[in-house]
Amino acid sequence: MAKTIKVAIIDDEQDILDMIEKYLRRLGGFEVEVFSNPTHALTRVDGKYDIVFLDIMMPQMGGLEVLKALREKAPDLKIVMMTAYSTLDKVLQSHREGATHYIMKPFSSMKVLEEKIRELVK
After folding, report:
1. What CATH number is associated with residue 97?
2. Which of 47, 80, 86, 100 is the most exposed place for a label (fewest CB within 10 A)?
3. What domain count does the chain have?
4. In angstroms, rounded to a whole number, what is the distance separating the alpha carbons of residues 23 and 66?
């Protein structure tokens, strides 16, 4: 039996959370938890997840700040930064802070997320 992949998604946009969660649940083999509030996510997200998708631009707390806090709690956690507003500086900064990967929104296809998850949790 295949291992269930545990995914956390942190994004202030509810439609993004709903879209990713529905897609992964429909595929099967994924346990998904979504967070629209990054502060709340920090109380729940730790090393029990296989991968975290984290929006870089959120009003309550910036994604880079969340990334730093997650790295302190779970140094080996795979964290993929997501954003619609990318600059080379933000990409480089997220990698310096420990991001595993970086993807652009809107996604060209939900398949991109699935492939990235499977690649990172092999």
Report:
1. 3.40.50.2300
2. 47
3. 1
4. 24
